[in-house]
C-alpha cells in the first residue's frame, strides 16, 4: 500500500542549495518510493542559535510503500552520506537535515519518530513550501494548513528559485 509523505529538507553548510537539490533527487531513488513534486528553494534565518549561516529549505512530496521507521532510517542514512554528524545539538548547523512532516494521515508518537512533526506548525520554512505543494491540507492534530499560515508570519523567509533550476 502506498502513502503520501511530506519531507522537509534543510541545509546551511557546504553549499546548501546543492545539498538540498541533490537530496531531492536521492529521495526519489529510495526503494519503493518516488518523488511526486517539490517546492522551490527558500532561504531562512536559523532557528535556535543565530550564530550560524542562513538555511536553504524545501519540502518534497513522496509516494512510498516504506513503513515510517524504515523511511526514517533511510533518511538518516541519506543525511550521513551528505556529511551530517549527529552531535545532540538541536537546531545547529548541518549539511543536510531531513524530517518527515507527514506520513499520510497517521499520527505517530514514538521515542524516535513523531508524526506530524511536532514543530511544523511554528515554522514558516516548513509551512510556506508545504503550501506550494498542497494548499488545502488538513494536518492531523494541527488543523488546516491555510489557518496555520495565517498565524505564522513569513518573516526571515525568502523564496529563491525553482528547485529544478
What's the gist of this structure?
The chain is built from 4 helices and 10 strands, in the order βαβββαβββαββαβ. By secondary structure, it is α+β, with helices and mostly antiparallel strands.
| Uncertain spans | none
What is the number of domains?
1
- In whole angstroms, the N-to-C terminal distance is 33 Å
% residues in beta strands: 25-35%
User: Which fold name fills CATH's third level, the topology?
Assistant: Alpha-Beta Plaits
CATH class: Alpha Beta
* Class from secondary-structure proportions: alpha+beta
Q: State mean pLDDT (0 to 100 scale).
A: 90
Shape: globular
Number of H- or I-type helical stretches: 4
Count the E strands. 10
CATH superfamily: 7,8-Dihydro-6-hydroxymethylpterin-pyrophosphokinase HPPK
What does this protein look like?
With 165 residues, this protein is α+β, with helices and mostly antiparallel strands. It has one domain (3-161): 2-Layer Sandwich (Alpha-Beta Plaits), CATH 3.30.70.560. It is built from 4 helices and 10 strands, in the order E-H-E-E-E-H-E-E-E-H-E-E-H-E. The protein has helices spanning 16-28, 68-81, 124-133, 145-150, and strands spanning 3-11, 33-38, 41-44, 55-64, 97-103, 108-109, 114-115, 138-139, 143-144, 157-161. The strands form 3 sheets. Strands 1, 2, 3, 4, 5 and 10 form a 6-stranded antiparallel beta sheet that branches. A two-stranded antiparallel ribbon has the order 6-7. It has a two-stranded antiparallel sheet with strand order 8-9. The protein is globular.
Amino acid at each position: 500500500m502506498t502513502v503520501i509523505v511530506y519531507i522537509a529538507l534543510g541545509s546551511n553548510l557546504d553549499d546548501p542549495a546543492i545539498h538540498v537539490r541533490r537530496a531531492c533527487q536521492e529521495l526519489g531513488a529510495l526503494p519503493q518510493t518516488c518523488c511526486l513534486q517539490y517546492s522551490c528553494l527558500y532561504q531562512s534565518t536559523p532557528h535556535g542559535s543565530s550564530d550560524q549561516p542562513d538555511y536553504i529549505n524545501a519540502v518534497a512530496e513522496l509516494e512510498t510503500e516504506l513503513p515510517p521507521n524504515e523511511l526514517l532510517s533511510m533518511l538518516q542514512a541519506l543525511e550521513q552520506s551528505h556529511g551530517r554528524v549527529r552531535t545532540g545539538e538541536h537546531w545547529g548547523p548541518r549539511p543536510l537535515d531531513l524530517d518527515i512532516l507527514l506520513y499520510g494521515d497517521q499520527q505517530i508518537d514514538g521515542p524516535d519518530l513523531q508524526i506530524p512533526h511536532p514543530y511544523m506548525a511554528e515554522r514558516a520554512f516548513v509551512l510556506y513550501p508545504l503550501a506550494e505543494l498542497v494548499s488545502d491540507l488538513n494536518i492531523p492534530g494541527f488543523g488546516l494548513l491555510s489557518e496555520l499560515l495565517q498565524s505564522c508570519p513569513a518573516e526571515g523567509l525568502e523564496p529563491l528559485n525553482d528547485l529544478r533550476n
